[in-house]
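pasting for the record
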Amino acid sequence: MRVANRRNLRAVFGGPCGLSTADIKRLHDAVRGGNVDAALELADELIGGCGVEALRGDGWASYYCDIVALYANTGDTYDETVIYDVGRRRFYVGSIGDWIESAESRGVTVY
């Protein structure tokens, strides 16, 4: 799992057939901007996702209730995407399947 900084966003979503430099910058700025919903909606639009989805678990946060992560759904558990880890309050780039495995190894229960 990689932090969603500009270098990692470019490595995962850039390249000749990927997002333009301008789109990578927009996504990076959105991730850094603090509005989780807006950042994930932009990520979903740019990577051609199927909507923003939530993963629920045993944790409880005042705003997110039992949501442990939010992510741009790509339709495949192991495709690269943008993930917001609610407990860590941080965006990551990686597959949601890898995030779930990592979270479970840290003792987070995911439904």
